[in-house]
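Field reference: sequence -> structure
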Amino acid sequence: MTTAKISVYRWHGIDKQGRATTGESSSTSQAAVKAQLRKQGIRPKTIKKKAKPFFFSKKSVKPADICVFTRQLASMIKAGVPLVQSFTLVAECLDNPSMAELVITIKNDIAAGSGFAASISKHPNHFDKLYCNLIAAGEQSGTLEVMLHRVAVYKEKSAALKAKIKKAIAYPIAVLVVATIVTGILLVNVIPQFAQSFANFGAELPAFTRLIVAFSEWVQQWWLIAIVAMAAAIILFKKAVRYSPRMAYAVDKAVLKTPVLGGILFQSIVARFARTLATTFSAGVPLIDALDAVAGTAGNIIYTNAITTIREDIMTGQQLHTSIRATDLFPNMLLQMVSIGEQSGTLGDMLEKVAVHYEEAVDNAVDHLTALLEPMIMSFLGVVIGGLMIAMYLPIFMMGAAI
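Structure field:
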């Protein structure tokens, strides 16, 4: 079956009050856009496909798009709209043409007789194993609406957790990048002017000034090679982490031991583990399959290996809390709550409480880290930029003192 391509159309028309109106719509054809507008009470006059920019790059499907799609589809099914029609309506509401095209592709598969879970499993880059397992469980139990709601909540919580981690990391990186750029400008453009003036002094410069001038000369000569070398080192490091399990293990272990940031990452891993396992367990997914999906969402090879070990222990008949305790990687609170949940038959609820606790802990830790980093970064910038300025003005101060 040929997949219908989603395009953006710009239209002009007359609304119910007789006023001229204009806008843009994403759909498969002009006829489909015209039908959409008529449903909205708009009489279209012109509909033209929007021209793509010369340097056009297809917008990728992001996790946020999957969250929006899942939430909207859950709302449509809750309202009693048939599944295939729900896909059509959701596709019309999406702003990302690539996501809308993906939704139409899935809709066509379902309309041709394929199941929902089977259709999305054809797109593993956008729908992970956990998502497919939950949808499959919803289809089999006849609770697709409930399952979509759970998946939407899980995706939203996961996205919020990732955003908090990015917030903790992005701020200092951005400031350091700006500081590097400013320092580079000073070393390449400003300090050489001072050095040229100092050459006429006929006196020996202070050691600190000589050091900065020598470093400036080195930067002017080798800056391009230094940038290329840094870029190459970063690329090689990423490839080593990606293709060498031993390197990935060493890096993930070192990151977890990093002061403050390591604690935040640890709490986020525990929160993700508890949230994912709570969602799958409450959905009726078998524990073995649930742990298999959880291992893929750990985000750290140390915990991925640990969860795989837990899964193997469960297959031999051990209890979940005993298997978790054997890894010696998870906090006592999680162990106690899992033990209580297994004994009382409320494991899903206990895991949910653990997830909420550690998500709040991550939120508080990120706020604390941000508040702590601000004065530290300002001090760092003051030392670096102020040090360069002092090195340049120090000879002038010494001359003034001698006079």
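Note: Strands lie at 7-14, 20-27, 43-49.
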